[in-house]
Design goal:
The protein has one domain: Rossmann fold (3-Layer(aba) Sandwich). Helix content is 33%, strand content 16%. A hairpin with a 6-residue loop joins strand 1 and strand 2. The longest helix is centred in the last third of the chain and has 17 residues.
């Protein structure tokens, strides 16, 4: 693996696999980082150049208070980072709100994005499941307590006893109140303007939608709303929740590789 910050935006970039293989870009969700894809990477590098980017405000990227965290701006930074890597075409995979960034990137750079795969990405705000406890919606104070963090993280998984990787909890701790709230608001604002199925339907890109059937953050039945996208492939993953990339990386990778093939 190689890792480096980009020159202009202080984005942390990871690359794995052969540089001459087809590029596969993995985009994490809000309050996460490129590390959320760690279990998947060894399963994908046999056939792909796997690229992961910590979005601004997340992970090991910079966390400035004076920059925009709107979805189009995040997508623009990702596109610029790929340009600096010399990547001209890529299949783009987004988890949760990372799928929103992936959609915006495809809108901005249709020549760059050859296909999209969305993993537990809610199609619109109507699919959101309000958490039963305030702490599960996200940290209300900063720094968040361990109890708050675990309540927040618990809704991302469905398997009993699944232990959340400590480094992912550290990713939440490492955010600032501004970067967390601004990133969340950016996703809400983008979905309020137009839902993802309507945006994707006019792009003409191959689309795979993967959804853990037991998602506790977004209604998995809403995956059917992506059927308005011509040729969309929709696959529900029984027994998995909001983060199948962590709960069952092998099953998730198998579906992705069948799509990219």
């Amino acid at each position: 693996m190689t890792a480096s910050p980009s020159d202009r935006d202080d984005l942390h970039v990871c690359q794995d696999g052969p540089r001459d293989a087809p590029a596969l870009l993995l985009i994490h969700g809000t309050a996460s980082s490129a590390r959320s894809w760690d279990p998947m990477v060894p399963l994908l590098t046999g056939s792909h150049r796997v690229i992961r980017i910590d979005l601004l405000g997340h992970g090991r990227s910079a966390k400035p208070d004076d920059r925009s965290y709107e979805i189009p701006d995040q997508a623009g930074r990702v596109g610029a980072a790929l340009d600096r890597l010399g990547v001209g075409r890529a299949v783009v995979v987004g988890h949760s709100s990372g799928g929103v960034v992936a959609t915006a990137l495809a809108e901005q750079r249709p020549e760059l994005v050859t296909a999209l795969a969305l993993v537990n990405t809610g199609p619109h705000l109507g699919a959101f499941i309000a958490p039963p406890e305030p702490a599960a919606a996200g940290p209300a104070v900063w720094p968040p307590t361990d109890e708050q963090l675990r309540a927040f993280a618990s809704t991302a998984f469905s398997r009993p006893g699944f232990r959340v990787p400590e480094e992912l909890l550290d990713d939440v701790r490492g955010m600032t109140p501004h970067t967390y709230t601004a990133s969340t608001r950016g996703t809400v604002s983008y979905l309020q303007r137009q839902g993802l199925p309507e945006r994707l339907a006019v792009l003409g890109k191959p689309l795979l939608v993967l959804f853990g059937e037991d998602d506790r953050r977004w209604r998995s039945s809403s995956a059917a709303d992506y059927r308005v996208v011509p040729g969309a492939r929709i696959e529900l993953l029984p027994g998995l929740g909001h983060s199948p990339l962590l709960e069952d990386p092998a099953r998730t990778a198998t579906a992705l590789l069948a799509f990219t093939a």
